[in-house]
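Slide 14.
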Amino acid sequence: MTTPAHLRLLPWTGPEGKPCYLSTDDRHGYMSRLADNIESIQLGMAAEVLDHATTTLRDKQATLGDLRLLANELTSALADTLRVATSRRHHQTESASHRR
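Slide 15: predicted structure.
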């Protein structure tokens, strides 16, 4: 049986917001490639939100509604980025333990 340390945290959640994991040794399989592509999209979107945040915060005309929307976008982007970082950290740890 595969232990949680050998599972890949996927960049999306399941029902009720619970984490989804992938159990496979095939890093080039369909689900692994799909997860890689979604992670790439999420990181790209986070960079766009950061640019938007910089612009909005410099705008002296920004309203409270603008700032609330920005806070929601930043929160979502940060959550996605942390999920990607967590997944990649576990992946690196697993790869290092296999090389030993």
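Speaker note: The helical segments are 30-58, 64-99.
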